[in-house]
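Milestone M4 deliverable, item 7.
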Amino acid sequence: MTDNNNSSKNLDLLIKGFLAVENEQECADFLDDLCTVTELKAISQRIAVAKMLLNNCVYSDIVKTTGASTATVSRVKRSLQMGRGSYEKLFSRMKDDE
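Output delivered:
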């Protein structure tokens, strides 16, 4: 039970950290300090996969373009189908900014 409580507190702290970021450079710096190169590659790969899936790209093109495994593509697709809609919401907001 304590572990779940600590995990929840840690997640809350991470969320507050992201919400405190004021611009793209601060976000890049925070991610660079927070994550390893491998973690950043995996995270950025997942968002690229999500964008391509939402643009109706086929698995083979996604794998070729992003370097993601088919397992990663499948996991992201499952998130798009059964998740909370965050990818769609964020991509929609990003289009509004362009």
